[in-house]
Amino acid sequence: MTVDIAQSNTRGIASLFNSAVAAWAIAAAWEIGALDELHRTRILDTADFADRGGLDPASTTGLFRALAAVGLVRREGAVVTTLAGFDEMYRNKSFFHWLARGSAELFREIPDVLRNDNRTGSFYRRDSAAIAFACREIDQVTYAPTFRAALGRVDFPITRVADLGCGSGARLMQILDRHPGATGVGIDIARPALDVARAEAAAAGLDDRTAFLHGDVLSLEPRPEYADVELLTCFMMGHDFWRDGRRENAVATLRRLREAFPAARRLLIGDATRTDLPDTDLPVFTLGFELGHDLMGTFLPTVADWESVFAEGGWELVRTNRIEMTVGEVIFELA
């Protein structure tokens, strides 16, 4: 019995280690297009895929050995086929990319980030372009259906829109596609994400209807491009309004948005909120997201925290849409 328990513990620790490796492999396999192809075809010759893509064949097969080790695919030499858990993993692949590509440096530097002496200035780094890449699909998995419903409830013609923290520009382009007569501006503090957004807009034929501006959403000032914006959207960055966990900072940012966008008639804020789940019952993404933001010193407000600041910040809460799939997602409709 003692031997069986020891063997079980050893297998459990091996599984823990292998799962960590598999998380990196999932992110990489998605980025090189191998996951998408396997999802379509259900069988993939990794050596052939590597040859077509100019990739090292042994390393490419190694990615899928990692996936086989955690039961997502079956591997016979270089050929892999999907197993029952593959589709659920594929649906959540952007979360793995957020962790292993976008936030890799933050998690790698945990020992240094934990030290109070180091927690000043820019004490952590993340890959903003990779975060934007992952968040485009995270949005589709979590917020998109509820966002489309909220957009459908806007009771005025949309001719000018601004997306705050626009990342790769996907949301802004979705709105413009739905409203062909509208123009829009995306604002983000991360220049690499703006470069991606401009390229994506040009590829979609929307460069004449979009502008992507570098700016800190937390300290925007009025400018001509903002004067006639009627619809504001802000997704997956609203928790940054609560600098240092202070309620008054959230109120001040909301008021500043009123001043910077004087014609705004609707503000849609979609964001994660702090969850209260048992440590042993956390869904995918929750642990990484909340630990990551703890490491960055970013306060995650609750839904009640948010609802307490809108009126004081100059906005009327029209509707609260709770999604709560992984990280307490919610969309607030404000007027």
Q: Sheet with the most strands?
A: 7 strands, mixed
Helix count, per DSSP? Answer: 15
Biggest sheet strand line-up: 6-5-4-7-8-10-9
**Content of β-strand:** 5-15%
* Rg over CA atoms: 22 Å
The overall pLDDT average reads 95
Distance between the termini: 65 Å
Helix-strand string:
HHEHHEEHHHHHHEHEHEEHEHHEE
How many beta strands in the DSSP annotation? 10
Can you give a write-up of this model?
There is one protein chain. The chain is an alpha/beta fold and 335 residues long. It is built from 15 helices and ten strands. Strand 2 (73-76) and strand 3 (79-82) form a beta hairpin. The longest helix is centred in the first third of the chain and has 30 residues, at 2-31. It is globular. The mean pLDDT is 95.
Condensed summary:
The protein is α/β, with parallel strands linked by helices.
Essential attributes:
10 strands; 335 residues; 15 helices; alpha/beta; 3-stranded antiparallel β-sheet; single chain; 7-stranded mixed β-sheet
Task: Give the SSE layout.
Layout: H1 2-31, H2 34-41, E1 43-45, H3 46-53, H4 57-69, E2 73-76, E3 79-82, H5 86-91, H6 93-102, H7 104-108, H8 110-113, H9 128-142, H10 144-152, E4 160-164, H11 170-178, E5 183-188, H12 191-203, E6 210-214, E7 231-235, H13 247-260, E8 266-271, H14 286-296, H15 303-307, E9 317-322, E10 330-334
Parallel strand pairs: 4-5, 4-7, 5-6, 7-8
Antiparallel strand pairs: 1-3, 2-3, 8-10, 9-10
Helix pairs in contact: 1-4, 1-6, 3-4, 6-9, 9-12
